[in-house]
Amino acid sequence: MRLIATSTGAELLNYCGLHIEKETPQDQIVALAGNPNVGKSTVFNSLTGLNQHTGNWPGKTVTNAQGRYRYKDKNFIMVDIPGTYSLTANSTEEEIARDFICFGGPDAVVVVADATCLERNLNLVLQIMEITDKVVLCVNLMDEAKKKKIRIDLNLLASHLGIPVVGTSARSNKGLDRLMDAVDSLTGKATKLKPLRLTYSDEIEKAVSMVESALEDAIKERVNSRWVALKLLDGDDPLLRSLQEYLGYDLMQDEGILRKVTEARNLLEKAGIPHHQLRDQLVTKIIKTCENIGRETITFGNKQYAERDRTIDKFLTSKLTGIPIMVALLFGVFWLTITGANYPSQLIATGLFSLEDWLSELLQTISAPFWLSGPLIDGIYRTLAWVVSVMLPPMAIFFPLFTLLEDSGYLPRVAFNLDNFFRKACAHGKQALTMCMGFGCNAAGIVGCRIINSPRERLIATITNNFVPCNGRFPTLIAIITMFFAGTAGGAFQSVVSTLMLTGMIILGVIMTVLISKLLSKTILKGIPSSFNLELPPYRRPQIGRVIVRSILDRTLFVLGRAVVVAAPAGLIIWLLANIHVGDLSLLTHCAAFLDPFARLMGLDGYIFFAFILGFPANEIVVPIIIMSYMATGSLTDFESLAQLHTLFLSHGWTWLTAVCVMLFSLIHWPCGTTCLTIKKETQSLKWMLVSMAVPTVSGIVVCLIVANTVRLLGLV
Fold first, then answer.
1. Which of 100, 153, 246, 593 gives 20 to 30 Å between its CA and that of 571?
2. What total of structural domains would you count in the chain?
3. Residue 22 domain boundaries
4. Which residue spans within 544-665 are E strands per DSSP?
């Protein structure tokens, strides 16, 4: 930790590379730790409210969240560290969590545990207590435990652990004042605690004492010497590297320490505890301690307390019904998105294009030249209006629906159902979750790939995320399905047919994801799939109000903002290509003519293929560019009805095969500009960004060539 002076008088401190600004020296740093899915972030959000900000850990793609909370005239800075099951790190997130607890020097650590599976959560609690005495156990989800007739004797639990224990139900803000009372008391100078100290076998204790005696002068109470001795004996290399970085030197280079570690390991070998078995004995002791504490402090009023969840899982995760139910839920989400987005999208478009007329009149009033009004209004503004009116309503519906599934505990079941398919493709089961995130926005799906621990499997998930359509491609798919395939169905049934076909396209995207993942794992990204523990959290009633607010603010507006930034310059380029002429033809027409022979082999034409290229910044503008090209209007254009659009396409040679190939290429082609920038940022590599563009592009071209030429050979068109 180092102190940096600031001009405001505040103190900017560096905790393990994470900058934390203290308003006064008395501000207390509180780390919020815990297993995944225990409500840790809910505790954080309930305490800090809007007084928080997020960012990335320095040099990492892992997000951190900091928030301020004032309690009893004292400022607390809460740091929501990544969820982890153990301090023996197996991923970047777990490594960051461990290092902040071990070396970040927080004034207190609040460990959030799930009351419905407390015994399992105590594992992390005991590990943290080996490092620091400043620990508060927050037993969250007490309301869920009560429903399942689980009773926890918190006072007895506190007596066993020797630390403050507080029961909370963070979703309803119950118990949070008591939690902060415990934190406030713990950070007071007069506080004296006697935390439980794990005692191992006599041989291990003797070996630890030998090493600990040699450490006292070297670490000078900067870290718990007993814990460091255990880790030196264990040989936890990643942690020892972090310890070396924190201390500024390698402890194993000290001859006295190295000699003691060697003697202690020899002692353990003679006692029948070889080096490779030491960690097993340490872990076994922790687990048995958790079991003993749980047996004495937890009472199950109903031995079948999880029967409801198991009954539901028999259907949602069954080999027979799991996939069909997943597809049905997917169908439901898309049907609601399609039917619900139509009217608000039309309303927003009407408003924005009415504003366009007003802006045009304003520029005419001031006699603005065409070279200014054309690019500004017909190029940039009209493109932005299209992106906002087409993207905002579907995202505002899809993201909350997706978040509700996530909040209810269903998404881990999706990963469970698809895990076998991805494992056979030598990919990671968590790729199913990142793929689901891509339905809303592929850029969000790329960011979600952080949850995959293996760098190889994370790259596979990143490269293949574009095979599932984002909300920017939905309008193109829906319009073509409606015009060429669902148009014969009338009324509400038309939306059902559209949704069925859209669901079929998405299933094709999932199949492509698995197939290309398999191909990558056998070629440029060879490797064996890593194992992982997938915890199926209990089903919970989502907090609908909070879900809507957070999904709109954190996802919808964030993604829309990125799209707008990329779409603005695209509008200018499109206008220039359509309005700069060489001879009698515009640059756009010349480019389309050049691409036409190859595009027709794919079942498209030059204008369609070039529209996909110009739509790189935002997939939403592909169809408007096609219309503009066919009508030679020089600016983005739309039709008032799909019937008129259908007639225009037919007059330019479209057939059902053209429609199919356009849908296939829309599903399988290069990522949009926003997604490419996100890939570059997440992988820190231009090479992998280019690979992520090339793989779906080549796949889309090959699929279209096969489909188009097979249909022609069979004489079906």
1. 593
2. 3
3. 2-186
4. 581-582, 585-586
